[in-house]
Design a protein that fits this description.
single chain, 398 residues, alpha+beta, 3 domains, five-stranded mixed β-sheet, five-stranded antiparallel β-sheet, 14 helices
Length: 398
């Protein structure tokens, strides 16, 4: 079995290397969305691009062709494409409680045609907000007689508990970038065959979605790998053996990450902390303990997606120890800082936001790029913390 596994891995590596060389030679590795750092910007990239394609008045010049493909894919009829309007981040009023239930917020994508409404809630990585779908339902109930609500996530997940209180009489369809959106986009590419700029933009977006959903760039590459696996029973058995070992492989990589984090902590005289699963880790020292905070790096979504960093409360019920200006100084140092119940200040780590096979390769076989980045970011945050401690009137900590 060991020999068969080695041969299978060798064959798959050869397929991947050949396609990587082909992509490099043809420029397929170039992706404008990645270059601009817009891979996971739900509104700026995904919602706006999807809405533009769905808009019959969009700049693509294909009128309602893309919207028709979307409607047909999901069996939606009696929708007046010719009179449809598409809006992004559509404001439906302030969030509030009314006699009719919770209302308000912003709908990611709203497509309307008379009294027909099609709502797309885009959750490629972000978590649900309280009563989000119920607020949309209450808005739709006032405005239209027929509403379709699509809950779009990376893998087609169901809404999480804070947002699952939508009425059953409102049709909710969970769809995924991984399969549903790729199917629609591939159909759009064929429809745009006579519009080269539109077609190539969609192609780049397809490649981006494949990367974000951990899929190979082309069906041809997938087919070659599949053919190598099902070549004979022994190879197929070897494939399942490898699949069964995937969790153990990730644990091995996490152990290497823990070792690097411990080394950084020792160098900076900090205590490291780790979650039971995944790649979350934290640092703390005596001064931070006295202020009730720690420096933490955590993932917002499964599969190591949406990595963020910041100062986290050691106890969310005890917040009065935290320096009052910590949030301000953190916001001055990092763009896009935010606040939550457990975090006085946090921000997404854009350069390392979503981990994939390249990240794991870097952790285990790399030259310390991620390790050095963690140490650099940690030193920056320690300076933020120290600057707050040094303020006049602040209590000194040893």
């Amino acid at each position: 079995m060991e020999h068969i596994i080695d041969q299978l891995l060798s064959d798959v590596e050869a397929v991947a290397r050949r396609h990587d060389e082909l992509c490099a030679a043809t420029g397929e590795l170039f992706n404008i969305f990645s270059v601009l750092g817009l891979e996971t910007a739900e509104v700026r990239t995904h919602s706006r691009l999807i809405a533009e394609l769905l808009d019959p008045k969009g700049s693509h010049g294909l009128a309602g062709a893309f919207l028709r493909l979307f409607l047909d894919q999901f069996g939606i009829k009696d929708f007046d494409i010719g009179n449809a309007t598409v809006e992004v981040e559509f404001y439906i009023g302030p969030k509030c409680e009314t006699a009719n239930g919770p209302e308000g917020g912003r709908i990611d994508i709203l497509i309307s045609a008379g009294d027909r409404l099609l709502i797309i809630e885009n959750k490629i990585y972000a978590s649900d907000q309280k009563d989000q779908l119920l607020r949309y339902y209450n808005y739709a109930r006032k405005r239209g007689t027929m509403t379709w609500l699509f809950y779009l996530t990376r893998d087609g997940d169901e809404p999480s508990s804070p947002s699952d209180g939508y009425p059953q009489k409102m049709t909710l369809t969970c769809i995924s970038y991984k399969t549903d959106m790729l199917k629609w986009l591939e159909a759009c590419k064929k429809e745009a065959v006579a519009f080269p700029l539109v077609r190539e933009t969609i192609s780049q977006y397809v490649n981006l979605i494949r990367a974000l959903t951990n899929q190979n760039r082309s069906n041809k590459m997938n087919n070659e790998i599949v053919d190598a696996i099902v070549k004979d029973p022994d190879r197929l058995s070897a494939f399942f053996a490898l699949t069964n070992a995937s969790d153990s492989v990730l644990r091995k990589i996490y152990e290497k990450l823990k070792s690097d984090v411990k080394e950084i902590a020792a160098k900076l005289e900090l205590e490291p902390g780790f979650s039971d699963i995944g790649g979350d880790f934290s640092f703390v020292n005596k001064s931070m303990k006295e202020c009730g905070v720690q420096i933490a790096f955590e993932f917002e979504s499964p599969n190591n997606r949406n990595l963020f960093f910041g100062f986290k409360y050691l106890d969310s019920k005890i917040k009065d120890k935290t320096p009052p200006d910590l949030r301000t100084r953190f916001g001055e140092a990092y763009d896009g800082s935010a606040v939550s119940d457990w975090w006085p200040c946090w921000a997404y780590w854009r350069e390392w936001r979503n981990w994939n096979e390249k990240t794991y390769m870097e952790i285990y076989f790399g030259k310390g790029t991620l390790k050095n980045a963690i140490e650099e970011r940690l030193n920056q945050m320690l300076k933020v913390f120290e600057s707050v401690q040094r303020q006049p009137g602040s209590t000194p900590h040893s």
